[in-house]
């Protein structure tokens, strides 16, 4: 089976991890720091905090923004469940904003309407978690404007989008958001096996996320509230935090992979272009993107159009039977049983639901060879034309 996504690990990556195994630090040590600084520099953000997953990074992002009981957080229904769960971990309630069918990202029109209504009802969210679907940035200028107008915080769930650009600036520079989160799960653009990172330009948010990442403890004596700073063993727990630290082993892999980020994104874009060109005249649609946006192309999202000979389910099953490991991104979060128990119903976010019925992700990863891609393209062309 050709998978829909796959990591690419080189001898260089392996050596980087083995070097750490032979060093003094296994858990958070100097390599974590170097990985953080390298990502911050690459994305032009001031601060970066590495974590053991993007899910943890989203959680400490919410905590640092003081999201808690009584607060409301909005996200996109077309995402991985972690985009919504992070708010629930904090005791906040979650709601969704429908997507734009042309991009699969949160619709800024739906967002503007929902914010206006929420303001009238005095039910404004404290934060909005936008998701850059498949690596394609949301319209951050518009989202930033709305955030200022309604005084809401913005978290970017950029789990798909490291290496991408918006208005020719790297995703992660946080110019239009408070915090931006990346994932380094193996299927994502670069990997640290498990891992994530939270970026911000706000020193206070960075300090808070650092504490929440490690038990709510600070060792910075200038920050002490009670203990004496001249006891060298001292540390203070000031918040209820977690152990969400990344290890140096993971950071070594991530740092080594970061060297290849631009190459990976270029390869993903080239493969995506092949698909786009090959399917001209075939009832397959793609995410619309503007010229100043560079998608990191975590996923090759396609839409089976309504005039297609085969419906999505038939296409999916046929491709799988032929060894082409297509996938669906995503089942709308609000249709998951857990969220149905929270009161969401079929029909609540109709654009997302319609999108879900027609979406299919095709294999896309650096190292997908020409022969395999040609086979995928020919199979689909034959099935649909
Ligand atoms: C993968 C993913 C996550 C979670 O990432 P982990 O590093 O596995 O915790 C969160 N949000 C989105 C959109 C994702 O795709």
Q: How would you describe what is shown here?
A:
The chain has a seven-stranded mixed sheet, with helices on both faces. Strands 12-13-14 form a three-stranded antiparallel sheet. The mean pLDDT is 97. It starts with 10 loop residues before the first helix and ends with a helix. The protein has helices spanning 11-21, 30-43, 54-64, 82-89, 108-120, 140-150, 203-213, 248-258, 261-278, 312-321, 337-341, 350-358, 370-384; strands at residues 47-51, 72-75, 93-96, 127-131, 153-157, 165-166, 169-170, 179-183, 196-200, 217-218, 236-237, 284-285, 300-304, 359-362. It folds into two domains: 11-257, Aspartate Aminotransferase, domain 2; 261-384, Aspartate Aminotransferase, domain 1 (Alpha-Beta Complex). The protein has 385 residues and is an alpha/beta fold. The structure holds pyridoxal-5'-phosphate (PLP). Pyridoxal-5'-phosphate (PLP) binds at residues 53-55, 79-80, 82-83, 131, 157, 159-160, 183, 185, 196.
What attributes characterize this protein structure?
Aspartate Aminotransferase, domain 2; EC 2.6.1.92; 7-stranded mixed β-sheet; 385 residues; DegT/StrS_aminotransferase; Aspartate Aminotransferase, domain 1; alpha/beta; PseC; UDP-4-amino-4, 6-dideoxy-N-acetyl-beta-L-altrosamine transaminase; 2 domains; globular
- Low-pLDDT segments, ≥5 res: none
Number of strands: 14
The CATH fourth-level homologous superfamily of the largest domain = Type I PLP-dependent aspartate aminotransferase-like (Major domain)
Largest sheet entry: 7 strands, mixed
**Which architecture of the largest domain does the CATH hierarchy give at level 2?**
3-Layer(aba) Sandwich
Mean pLDDT: 97
Bound molecules: pyridoxal-5'-phosphate
Q: Strand-residue fraction?
A: 5-15%
- How much helix, percentage-wise, in residues? 25-40%
GO molecular function: pyridoxal phosphate binding; transaminase activity
EC number: 2.6.1.92
Active site: 188
Modified residues (N6-(pyridoxal phosphate)lysine): 188
């Amino acid at each position: 089976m050709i998978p829909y996504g796959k990591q690419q690990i080189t001898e260089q990556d392996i050596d980087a991890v083995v070097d750490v195994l032979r060093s003094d630090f296994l858990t958070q040590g100097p390599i974590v720091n170097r990985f953080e600084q390298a990502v911050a520099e690459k994305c032009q953000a001031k601060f970066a905090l590495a974590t053991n997953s993007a899910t943890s990074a989203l959680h400490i992002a919410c905590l640092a923004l003081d999201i808690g009981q009584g607060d409301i957080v909005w996200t996109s229904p077309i995402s991985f469940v972690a985009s919504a769960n992070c708010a629930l971990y904090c005791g906040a309630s979650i709601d969704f904003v429908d997507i734009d069918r042309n991009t699969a990202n949160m619709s800024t029109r739906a967002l503007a309407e929902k914010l206006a209504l929420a303001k009238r009802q005095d039910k404004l969210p404290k934060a909005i978690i936008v998701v850059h679907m498949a690596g394609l940035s949301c319209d951050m200028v518009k989202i930033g404007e709305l955030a200022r107008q309604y005084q809401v915080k913005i978290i970017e769930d950029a789990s798909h989008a490291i290496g991408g650009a918006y208005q020719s600036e790297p995703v992660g520079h946080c110019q239009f958001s408070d915090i931006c989160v990346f994932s380094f799960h193996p299927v994502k653009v670069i990997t640290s096996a498990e891992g994530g990172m939270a970026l911000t330009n706000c020193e206070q948010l960075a300090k808070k996320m650092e504490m929440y990442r490690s038990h709510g403890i600070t060792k910075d004596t200038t920050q002490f509230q009670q203990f004496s700073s001249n006891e060298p063993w001292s540390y203070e727990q000031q918040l209820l935090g977690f152990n969400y630290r990344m290890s140096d082993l993971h950071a070594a892999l991530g740092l080594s992979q970061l060297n290849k980020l631009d190459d990976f994104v270029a390869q993903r874009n080239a493969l995506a272009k092949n698909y786009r060109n090959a399917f001209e005249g075939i009832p397959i649609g793609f995410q619309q993107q503007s010229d100043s946006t560079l998608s990191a192309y975590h996923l090759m999202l396609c839409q089976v159009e309504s005039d297609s000979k085969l419906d999505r389910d038939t296409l999916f099953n046929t491709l799988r039977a032929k060894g082409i490991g297509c996938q669906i991104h995503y089942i709308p979060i609000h249709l998951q049983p857990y969220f149905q128990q929270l009161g969401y119903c079929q029909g609540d976010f109709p654009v997302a639901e319609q999108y879900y019925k027609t979406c299919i992700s095709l294999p896309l990863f650096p190292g997908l060879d020409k022969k395999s891609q040609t086979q995928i393209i020919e199979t689909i062309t034959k099935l649909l034309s």
